[in-house]
Write a structure and sequence with these properties.
The complex is a heterodimer of chains A (293) and B (159). Chain A is of the alpha/beta class and 293 residues long. Chain A contains 7 helices and 5 strands. Chain A is elongated and about 115 Å long. In chain B, helix 2 runs antiparallel to helix 3. The chains are: A alpha/beta (293), B alpha+beta (159).
Chain lengths: 293, 159
């Protein structure tokens, strides 16, 4: 029997040194994965708290945003097809670990840019969030007009949106029409990359349905347009943060679950290895004692 | 009929007593009044709204002429269907009256009037006025002027 077990044990004999080292390796791996699981669990709870706050402030922001866009929808303002200068505002944030939030907005922006360049238009983009800059500067660096940083740490306010709008208006890029791309929040587990149109002063002033609006002079219309721009940017930012926090919550949750799975598997491997080591030592002792007799 | 009503609207200025819409069907007003952080009215039906705009204060009733206006610091009074009225102080913003009688009043900041304190407003006004004397930079001067105008409006509203 010993001979047979000896033979059976011969194969792992060369791996025996490996097994001893593996026990320590497994311990180290187990400890590091447990740490990671703690971190992802706490990140999930932080994201959950931020998400509930963002969702609560999204409700009035939605009413505000839809009110701001009501004019363009009711007056059915459409941009004329032959205009050349386009603007794309992409709304995202600075921080990662939130699933496909940044890449979906960047992908939509790239598609838009390709479509517009193919039609011979000129296009410039505004990045709200550092991650978008990172994703776009290599391929579309020459189209970037403005980059915004420090987005996502604190909940967005109306002041932030107005700073972005001021920069855009001061940049001197007279766009004829544009769109804002952001992640619209649908539910805790789902969001959708959405697009809302932006119109320039000329488009609105020359639109056919504007005639029914009484008593509008150029100054009032310009003020109104600037205010509407800020409102739309604010709406996009609010929706974007809520989607981002819910996506981060989901991502960290699945990371924690995966880490738990790995811990379970590794614990089993650890126990098996430990038992193998003990068995091996017993056999050594017994065969040593048998040899002495 | 639509064309006739259109001409009638254009001819008559937007004053409450000059209107005579007894024969026109009273369109329901869908009134939305919100600030970025708070919603006061959402597609509500109200009787009349008085708004302060850059071109003057005017009242909006159902079936008002479509218009776009920019708000100035002042009081917005909302007259509900039951006759009650509530006052709010707005800092700035825009008001849109659409053809289907929906009104969107978007204020950058809006508070109910009774949450403002007269003494603090007076103190702020004096501080702003004294700053106005000393400031020279164009942008800073504009800011102080805005502050003076807003505080004046608050004081006038509360008195």
């Amino acid at each position: 029997m010993f001979a047979r077990t000896g033979a059976a044990l011969f194969l792992p004999q060369c791996g025996q040194v490996r097994n001893m080292a593996t026990l320590k390796d497994i311990t180290i791996r187990l400890k590091s994965i447990k740490n990671i699981q703690k971190i992802t669990k706490s990140m999930k709870m932080v994201a959950a708290a931020k998400y509930s706050r963002a969702e609560r402030s999204l409700k009035p922001a939605r009413v505000y945003g839809t009110g701001a866009m009501a004019l363009y929808e009711k007056a059915e303002i459409k941009a004329p097809e032959d205009k050349n200068k386009h603007l794309i505002i992409g709304v995202s944030s600075d921080r990662g670990l939130c699933g496909a939030i940044h890449s979906s907005v960047a992908k939509a922006m790239k598609n838009e840019i390709a479509k517009l360049l193919g039609a011979g238009k000129e296009v410039m983009i505004v990045n709200v969030g550092d991650k978008l800059r990172g994703l776009l500067y290599r391929t579309h660096g020459q189209h970037i007009l403005i980059n915004c940083k420090e987005v996502g740490r604190k909940p967005p306010t109306f002041t932030d949106a107005s700073i972005i709008a001021t920069e855009l208006l001061d940049s001197g890029y007279e766009f004829d029409q544009g769109s804002i791309l952001f992640n619209r929040f649908r539910s805790v587990i789902s969001y959708k990359t959405d697009e809302k149109p932006l119109f320039s002063l000329d488009t609105v002033a020359n639109s056919e349905n504007m005639g029914i609006y009484d008593d509008i002079d150029a100054d009032v219309l310009r003020n109104y347009q600037e205010f509407a721009l800020v409102n739309i940017i604010y709406f996009g930012m609010k929706e974007s943060t809520t989607s981002e926090q819910s996506a981060r919550m989901t991502a960290m949750d699945s990371a924690s679950k995966n880490a738990s799975e790995m811990i379970d598997k590794l614990t089993l491997t650890f126990n098996r290895t430990r038992q193998a080591v003990i068995t091996k030592e017993l056999i050594e002792i017994i065969s040593g004692a048998a040899a002495l007799e | 009929v639509m064309a006739a009503r259109f001409l009638l609207r254009r001819a008559v200025p937007a004053l409450r007593h000059a209107r005579c819409y007894a024969d026109a069907p009273a369109a329901q007003m869908s009134f939305t009044f919100a600030s970025p952080t708070q919603v006061f009215f959402k597609e509500a039906s109200v009787k009349q709204i008085d708004v302060p705009t850059l071109t003057g204060a005017f009242g909006i009733l159902p079936a008002h002429v479509p218009t776009l206006q920019v708000l100035r610091p002042g009081i917005v009074t909302v007259f509900g269907d039951d006759g009650s009225s509530t006052k709010y102080f707005v800092s700035s913003g825009s008001v849109t009256v659409n053809a289907d009688s929906s009104v969107q009043l978007l204020a950058e900041e809006a508070v109910p009037l009774d949450s403002l304190d007269l003494a603090t407003a007076k103190a702020n006004l004096e501080k702003a006025q004294s700053e106005l004397v000393g400031v020279s930079d164009e942008a800073a001067r504009a800011e102080v002027l805005i502050s003076v105008e807003a505080n004046e409006a608050i004081v006038k509203a509360l008195e």
